Amino acid sequence: MVCDDDQGILDVVELMLEIEGYHVIKVIDSTTLQEKLQNSRPDLLLLDLWMPIISGEQILKSLRSSSDFNDLPVIIFSASMDGAEIAERANANAFLSKPFDMVQLASVVEEVIN
């Protein structure tokens, strides 16, 4: 599952991951993410850090305090200069700096899933 408020990024990430053989569920609205997680039960969540209304950091902290999703692998991705620190503080499994290429994305996803 990929959650980002930018449709272009969602589409590019979906394409990149589908080329690698993954099934991708896109979520553009962070306020609907919890419900979609409940319904879909993904193997991994790629989560943008800076989104309107509910930030990726807030979502991740909520997931980590939930018995349903505290062990869900989460990769935070962001163009933020302090994104890696925020991701680490919120207990993300990995951080990916925007912009990234297909090789970087595939490598981080593979590392976190395995």
UniProtKB/TrEMBL annotation:
GO biological process assignments: phosphorelay signal transduction system
The reply on keyword Lyase is no
Q: Which residues form the Response regulatory domain?
A: 1-113
Tell me the keywords, alphabetical order: Phosphoprotein
**A Pfam short name:** Response_reg
The organism's superkingdom is given as Bacteria
Q: Does the keyword Repeat apply?
A: no
Record PTM 4-aspartylphosphate, positions in chain: D48
InterPro entries, per this entry?
A: Bact_response_regulator, CheY-like_superfamily, Sig_transdc_resp-reg_receiver
What is the official name of this protein in its record? Response regulator receiver domain-containing protein
Which organism was this protein described from? Epilithonimonas zeae
What is the taxonomic lineage of the source species? Bacteria, Pseudomonadati, Bacteroidota, Flavobacteriia, Flavobacteriales
